[in-house]
Inverse folding.
């Protein structure tokens, strides 16, 4: 009796405190949702209380613009030199004089460039890679995208080295001064990676003008985070003994960094370089909107005019370029230095490089005399545009009803109800729920950060648009996860299936986000359904990858122990494999959510009505305040989602003892 | 037998009058916030309770030792005993919290960064447990790296590198990358690299612990061979007591950050300072560490000897011979003065551990 008496009062609060908090938060939210008139200010953010952050930012930008134009224009002029040089070399050629008497020094011959890519492929990966590289480049040439593709390549060629140098420098700084890393670099990187790509363009446009340079700078900034992260990781992974060794042979600080630490971390840094190149390609495509030109501009024009064929062709040229750059840089990263023998000269040591340069010089020289070397002759150009158009027309004629039914079904029964529910969701309830979740998962610090970020979306008057973003992003990420996790499980169970999936996933991951929109638009026209399908395609890869990896990395001895204990295959899956793989799967879902968010914003081009559209409109009007405020709101949504998912993954992991 | 004691002691304590190369006085390494201030407050001698109370960790505590020029000095301890930390304090890879470290009478801890770089470049060499070879350099470039850091021109440094490559027997592998070599070969590169600058003092941090037992023995023999030629001052870390007694002139045994005994392998085996040391030495084959002088009996003039040995010779080195010929051996001092004799039965007793039984019975 006495035991029961003393235990009862103690047990009630310990069990029910968290439950009570949740119940209270949910009840308040439900009341606000059902009866918004109880507290109208808490249901719909009062427009009188909107803080004009957008105006402040605009004022700041205007001030910067009027006071620092000398600086920004100076920077533009400086960067313009190498950039124009690269553009002339690859795409335009040098023109001296005017009119018919002008002397034109030609760009690098397309024959030579194709050959150079093939030779690079051969040097890094043998015949296989050589043929992939050659095929992709020849595709670009024959299908009439040469000049645009070379323009894109020139922008990448200048912004990537910039990224690598600055990224590595920031990485070294972050490694050497951990407090700078924690206080400045880490939050900056988070913001840079969640900030939508369009939002980068607006301040660049204002400060550096409507020129390729601002596109290049936006690209350099956007693509830098992986380089910083890879450098920090590479330096952290250098074995302690190698560090000690550097000290013991009496290296100065500079010698140790340049000759011991960075070379030892080369492999990890090269992964960063590969990511930088791919992100740069992605961003160069998008920055074509602010006058950088190139393949992205072609796609944009075609999309606006709904010229399916041309859009598809330019899109496929981007795909070809992406595949070449990705495979080449990955193979180069795997490359190990060849044993060098000292008594060889430069040519003997670098036969491939010499050959490539020689071919480039010869073919370019030939193009003075033979026009076929200067421009791709019209006779061998092929256009697939009519064919694509015919295909799409055929599908639309024969399957219009089915596609339309599918589209309408999705809209009416899934998308619109969720949208209505979320847009009507009381802002105060959302802030409350986010705060409670963050507090329960991690603690007061995270709760404060996430609540402030959620509040930002409300106080700037962007609440409805934020919810619209959340709805599309959430639905797409959910569908991507629902499709991706089973696919990942299937891949983990069958090596054959995994072998089929790997190249598909590689390709999906390589493609710039732009490319996903084109085929979907052809079938589903513009609108939310198209945005959702493109986003699902774009965001599904990590869900599959991490699930597969999470299940495969479970230690063999655990599986054996479960088998010996007599688990049926079903028990094995539900009670051993899935729980142990769950933290990894969560990481994949986290990635999927962030990718979905970035894609949803791109989809503003096909007429969604969310924050992305806000940025897109601001970009068109060069309205920095409006664009950046919406950009921050998007970034904050991303960061809140990322932190909450990460916190729950951490909890899971520590519960499983996997930290 | 009592009249033998002075003779024996004289033979064994053969005065080590080599100059002190490295002198380490009362070195402490205390980890945690405010460790330096804490040590100053307690005047460099806090008790264990005081350290625990301040929430600090005493990784190395009042360690004092001196290493003679040309000596093989071994620091032995299990993982977590602080042996690595101590040796890193000696080379100032880790800044000691308290104490002094003198190399040829110069206080290393007071050396400016510039002076320290110079000392490391020309007077110290170090070999690492996991080799610490630079993955992007060939064997030749790895070995020449310390010279290249000093700014030695390519021709000179490669010449020197080839010389040490020859010394460690890696000829023909100059253009290989570390990943293309076996563990033993990689450590040979590590050894060659540390010798390329012709250091005076040679730190070896568990150099053979990552190798297979057979390779390990081979490398130990290799080290003894190299040392018989080079005569460096060696500070060698190991967790393997057998390795310690095989290589050591003297051994320092560490436990929980403290040095609990320093002595020759023989002293450790015969007079362990604590139960902990005794635990290590229990399974040692004593014939390997004990000198002939320990079994010496008074000399009988009328006998015909089966051979002559030095008082400092290890018993294992002549045990097979003396048991084979079944005759007494004459023991002489280093100068050849007769001191006494060793009887085969005593050797057999020692090999069979029967002498210990006798002691127990007595």
């Amino acid at each position: 009796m006495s035991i029961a008496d003393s235990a009862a009062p103690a047990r009630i609060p310990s069990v029910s405190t968290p439950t009570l908090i949740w119940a209270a938060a949910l009840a308040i939210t439900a009341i606000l949702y059902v009866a918004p008139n109880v507290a109208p200010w808490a249901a719909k953010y009062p427009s009188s209380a909107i803080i004009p952050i957008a105006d402040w930012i605009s004022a700041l930008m205007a001030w910067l613009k009027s006071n620092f134009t000398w600086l920004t224009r100076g920077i533009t002029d400086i960067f313009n030199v190498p950039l124009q040089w690269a553009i002339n070399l690859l795409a335009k050629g040098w023109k001296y004089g005017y009119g018919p008497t002008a002397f034109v020094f030609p760009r690098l011959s397309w024959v030579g460039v194709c050959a150079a890519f093939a030779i690079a492929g051969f040097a890094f990966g043998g015949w296989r890679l050589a043929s992939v590289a050659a095929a992709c480049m020849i595709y670009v040439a024959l299908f009439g995208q040469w000049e645009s593709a070379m323009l894109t390549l020139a922008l990448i060629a200048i912004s990537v080295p910039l990224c690598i140098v600055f990224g590595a420098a920031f990485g070294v700084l972050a490694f050497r001064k951990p407090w700078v890393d924690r206080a400045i670099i880490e939050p900056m990187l988070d913001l840079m990676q969640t900030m939508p790509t369009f939002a980068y363009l607006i301040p660049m446009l204002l400060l550096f003008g409507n020129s390729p340079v601002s596109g290049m700078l936006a690209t350099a900034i956007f693509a830098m985070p992986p380089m910083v992260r890879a450098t920090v990781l590479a330096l952290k992974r250098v074995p302690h003994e190698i560090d000690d060794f550097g000290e013991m042979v009496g290296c100065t600080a500079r010698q140790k960094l340049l000759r011991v630490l960075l070379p030892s971390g080369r492999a990890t840094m090269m992964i960063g370089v590969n990511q930088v190149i791919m992100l740069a390609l992605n961003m160069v495509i998008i920055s074509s909107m602010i006058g950088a030109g190139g393949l992205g501009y072609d796609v944009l024009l075609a999309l606006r005019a709904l010229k399916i064929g041309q859009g598809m062709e330019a899109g496929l040229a981007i795909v070809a370029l992406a595949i070449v750059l990705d495979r080449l840089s990955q193979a180069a990263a795997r490359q190990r230095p060849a044993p060098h023998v000292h008594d060889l000269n430069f040519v003997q040591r670098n036969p491939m490089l010499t050959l490539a340069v020689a071919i480039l010089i010869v073919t370019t020289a030939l193009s003075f005399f033979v026009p076929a070397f200067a421009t791709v002759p019209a006779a061998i150009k092929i256009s697939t545009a009519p064919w694509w158009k015919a295909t799409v027309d055929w599908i639309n004629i024969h399957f219009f009803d089915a596609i339309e039914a599918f589209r309408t079904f999705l809209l009416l029964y899934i998308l619109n109800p969720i949208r209505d529910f979320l847009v009507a969701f009381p802002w105060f309830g959302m802030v409350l729920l986010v705060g409670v979740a963050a507090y329960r998962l991690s603690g007061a610090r995270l709760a404060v950060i996430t609540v402030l970020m959620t509040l930002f979306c409300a106080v700037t008057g962007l609440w409805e648009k934020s919810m619209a973003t959340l709805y599309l992003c959430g639905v797409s990420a959910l569908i991507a996860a629902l499709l991706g996790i089973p696919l990942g499980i299937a891949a983990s169970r069958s090596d054959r299936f995994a072998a089929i999936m790997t190249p598909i996933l590689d390709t999906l991951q390589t493609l710039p986000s732009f490319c996903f929109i084109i085929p979907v638009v052809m079938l589903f026209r513009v609108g939310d359904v198209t945005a959702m399908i493109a986003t699902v395609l774009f965001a599904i890869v990590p869900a599959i990858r991490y699930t597969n990896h999470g299940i495969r990395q479970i230690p063999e001895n655990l599986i054996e122990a479960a088998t010996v204990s007599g688990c049926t295959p079903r028990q094995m899956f539900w009670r051993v494999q899935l729980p142990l793989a769950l933290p990894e799967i969560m990481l994949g879902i986290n990635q999927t959510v962030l990718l979905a968010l970035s894609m949803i914003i791109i989809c503003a081009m096909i007429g969604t009505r969310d924050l992305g559209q806000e940025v897109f409109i601001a970009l068109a009007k060069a309205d920095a305040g409006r664009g950046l405020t919406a950009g921050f709101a998007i970034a904050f949504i991303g960061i809140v989602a990322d932190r909450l998912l990460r916190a729950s993954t951490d909890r899971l992991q520590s519960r499983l003892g996997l930290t | 037998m009592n009249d033998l004691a002075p003779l024996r002691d004289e033979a064994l304590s053969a005065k080590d009058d080599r100059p002190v190369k490295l002198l380490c006085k009362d070195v402490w390494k205390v980890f945690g916030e405010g460790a330096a201030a804490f040590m100053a407050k307690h005047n460099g001698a806090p008790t264990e309770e005081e350290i625990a109370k301040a929430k600090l960790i005493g990784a190395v505590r009042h360690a004092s030792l001196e290493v003679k020029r040309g000596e093989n000095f071994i620091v032995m301890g299990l993982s977590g005993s602080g042996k690595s930390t101590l040796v890193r304090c000696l080379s100032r890879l880790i800044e000691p919290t308290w104490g002094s470290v003198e190399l040829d009478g110069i206080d290393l801890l007071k050396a400016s960064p510039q002076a320290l770089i110079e000392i490391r470049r020309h007077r110290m060499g170090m070999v690492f447990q996991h080799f610490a070879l630079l993955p992007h350099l060939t064997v030749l470039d790895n070995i020449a790296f310390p010279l290249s850091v000093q700014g030695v021109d390519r021709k000179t440094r490669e010449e020197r590198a080839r010389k040490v490559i020859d010394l460690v027997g890696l000829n023909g592998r100059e253009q290989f990358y570390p990943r293309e070599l076996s563990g033993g070969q990689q450590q040979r590169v590590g050894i060659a690299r540390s010798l390329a600058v012709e250091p005076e003092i040679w730190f070896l941090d568990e150099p053979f612990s990552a190798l297979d037992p057979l390779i390990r023995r081979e490398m130990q023999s290799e080290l003894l061979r190299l040392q018989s030629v080079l005569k460096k001052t060696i500070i060698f870390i190991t967790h393997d007591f057998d390795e310690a007694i095989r290589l050591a002139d003297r051994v320092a045994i560490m436990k929980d950050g403290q040095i609990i005994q320093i002595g020759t392998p023989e002293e450790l085996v015969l007079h362990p300072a604590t139960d902990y040391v005794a635990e290590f030495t229990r399974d040692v084959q004593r014939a390997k560490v004990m000198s002939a002088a320990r079994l010496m009996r008074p000399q009988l003039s009328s006998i015909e000897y089966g051979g002559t040995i030095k008082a400092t010779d290890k018993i294992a080195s002549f045990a097979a011979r003396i048991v084979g010929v079944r005759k007494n051996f004459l023991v002489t001092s280093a100068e050849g003065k007769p001191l006494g004799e060793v009887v085969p039965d005593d050797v057999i007793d020692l090999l069979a551990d029967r002498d210990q039984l006798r002691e127990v019975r007595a």
Summary: The mean pLDDT of chain B is 86.
